[in-house]
Amino acid sequence: MRDWLDANFPNVGSAPFGFWMAQQGSIICFVLILIAYAKLMGRLDDEVNQEGEEK
Amino acid sequence: MSQDGYNYLFIGLSFALYIGIAFRQQAGSTKEYYTAGGGVGPFANGMATAADWMSAATFISMAGLLATSGYDGSRFLMGWTGGFVLLTVLMVPFLRKFGKATVPDFIGDRYYSKVARFVAVVCAIFICLTYIMGQMRGVGVVFQNLFGISISAGVWIGGSIVFVYAGLGGMKGITYTQVAQYCVMAFAYTIPAVFIAIALTNNFIPQLGFIGDYQVDGEEVVPFLEKLNNVNKELGFAEYTSGSLSTIDMFCITAALMCGTAGLPHVIVRFFTVKNVKAVRTSACWTLGFIAVIYLTAPTIGGFARVNLIETLHNTPHAEAPAWFKDFEENKQMSWTDKNGDGKIQYFGPDQEKKGNANELTFGSDIMVMANPHMAGLPKWVIGLLMAGCIAAALSTAAGLLLVLSTAISHDLMKKIIKPNLSDREEINWARGASFGALLVAIYFGINPPSEFIAKTVAFAFGLAASSFFPTLLMGIFSRRMNKEGAIAGMAVGILFTFSYIVYFQFMGGTKDQYWFASETSGGISPEGIGFVGMLLNFAVAFTISRFTSPPPKEVTDLLDEVRYPDKKGAESVIAHH
Known about the structure:
The complex is a heterodimer.
Chain A: H1 2-8, H2 17-54
Chain B: H1 3-24, H2 30-35, H3 42-53, H4 56-69, H5 74-98, H6 103-110, H7 114-147, H8 151-201, H9 206-210, E1 213-214, E2 222-223, H10 224-234, H11 247-262, H12 265-270, H13 277-313, E3 316-317, H14 323-330, E4 334-336, E5 344-345, H15 350-354, E6 361-363, H16 368-376, H17 380-418, H18 424-447, H19 454-478, H20 484-507, H21 530-548, H22 554-564
Antiparallel strand pairs in B: 1-2, 3-5, 4-6
Helix pairs in contact in B: 1-8, 1-17, 3-8, 3-13, 4-13, 4-17, 4-19, 5-11, 5-13, 5-22, 6-7, 7-8, 7-17, 7-18, 7-19, 7-20, 8-13, 8-17, 8-18, 10-13, 11-19, 11-21, 13-16, 17-18, 19-20, 19-21, 20-21
């Protein structure tokens, strides 16, 4: 997996992609996932709330 | 001002701040003691959780491990942050909605059983104690470096301070202390990194410098990571950017750390302190953001420290070695033996040793972060700040753990199992007593640690959490068929299995070739990664047993449906309606 990433993606700066993903990129992705999750779930909550009021 | 002066100043100031906050925020009722009254803002809670969760292992040990093990160290980075995502998406919003104050409390109610609650209490105690040992050890190491006192004296000092504000102030006390501690930690971690990045790569953002070029006057400009690889190879170590662990071990350790993070009781309870489910999610975003600030810096510190260490020490005559080296030698954190008698320090890895070049320098990787600013020749106040940060990291986590321990005993063991008519006041006193007792045990193990590296000790705690709480909580939320028999058996099997594997290899002289799945070509699963196997066992056992026993009562499944359905009323706790 790691080697495949190294071989098939461009280097980030001077770091091989797989190495960069392991030490930096994955963390950045995790933060983005959580932000997206909070936004989406918040929206879902709002929708359900509005339906509840209309009834 | 001298170095000691700065150290005393920063640490004294930070301690005064923590205790001052704790006194202003004393808990009066059990609700305040357990969940700070439930009204902490998402932003503040995010900071507090980040501090709670980033332990001495993160702060002191991780960069050191990264420095010595290069790519292999990534398991800690990915495991710990990834676990946080699992925690937020799968666990805390649901648990918060269920509306219980502690984790065993949830398990006890969800599985309608005192036995399940009791097993959960035992698991919580095991996890927290293992974890807190690592923290106490961390405090000891810092104090030893600072004031030249023995590690045990340092552990005692740290322990007493934690007791003052966590044992007495409860969740309310530690929440705001942790906010302060996060600030101290963030500055203490990033400022030295920035200075060093400027010195080595001429780039003031460490993360960019890390992937940028190595630029030091009088030496040719090469990409920093290439420099690191070259230096490592020259001295006979593996290349920095390639790993040495077997894939299966790396996978298991990362998975155990991830699931363990998601099952850590002290992090879960932090989310019971915010107002509603929406706030839980926002707060989790903030937390991971704050954590990322430090986690993105850690690998850069590791890399920089490695280059610095080798450049300053390798082939340097011992008589000309910098003053800090002698300090570290004095308190036995680094040692040098002149094997070839040339008066110079030589640092060699396995490949060079095979060629007959003896390695003369040994050091524990835990000291890397602390030695780093010395190596880079940073101003004294930066070092003082760093020391305060190390201690903040250890104390904040120790406090959070202590709280879980004490509430597990006072609330779940005393009030819910042994003596149901306990008054509010008595319950708090029990909690304080329990935290005192737990601390004594932790101090003992802090002085006599089960493993030499802090991060490793802590990895065991994660393994235990992954094998016990994670599957039980997960199935408790998402499986309507899961009943008490399955949950109890699963938890018991998971934690016993993991615990015995760790004890066997850590204390009873098990050797590496006895690891599971070990083969001629690659290593097997180390005790750090066994939690993942324990977790799979837990799932399997719980699933099988629950199919052969009676399903849970209807109230419980109704409750679950309500917990899982999106919120209708701005997310008050479900329990209130029942």
